Amino acid sequence: MIELTGCLSPHLPTPQGGHTRLVWLTPDRGTARLRVITWTCRCRATLYELCQAGGQGFIRRTLQLEGSLEVHETYRWPIRQAGDIWRALLSGEAR
Q1: Burial (CB count within 10 angstroms: exposed 0-12, middle 13-18, buried 19+), residue 51
Q2: CB burial string 13-47: b at 16+ within 10 A, e below
Q3: What percent of the chain has pLDDT over 90?
């Protein structure tokens, strides 16, 4: 279940037992045009974004550390599949 607070964007629930572990890669710096479709709340240390580039979708994870950001991305999938994985992330079925 998505945690609702006074924030406008969702907070992720605790991952479920046996959740899918996503592979986090170094961002593809060759992507010139990128569209962020939706995101989780920025008030948490870890921000997730569903992104689209070149007809594919992926999830970007940003760790907001003191004084710096650490960014990783998943593999790229067809947009519909990326949306399915995004919903799994929001439900605690993936992390």
Answers
A1: buried
A2: eeeeeeeeebeeeebeeeeeeeeeeebbbeeeeeb
A3: 66
Closest CA relative to residue 48, chosen from 29, 30, 67, 24: 24
Strands 46-53 and 56-65: antiparallel
Long-range pairs for 68-73 at CB < 8 Å and ≥24 separation? 71/27, 72/24, 72/25, 72/26, 72/27, 73/24, 73/25, 73/26, 73/27, 73/28
At 20, the amino acid letter reads T
Mean pLDDT of the chain: 90
Please calculate the CA angle 11-16-19 and round it to the nearest 5 degrees.
Answer: 105
pLDDT in tens, 35-56: 999 999 988 899 999 999 989 9
| Residue whose tokens read 């992104």 | 51
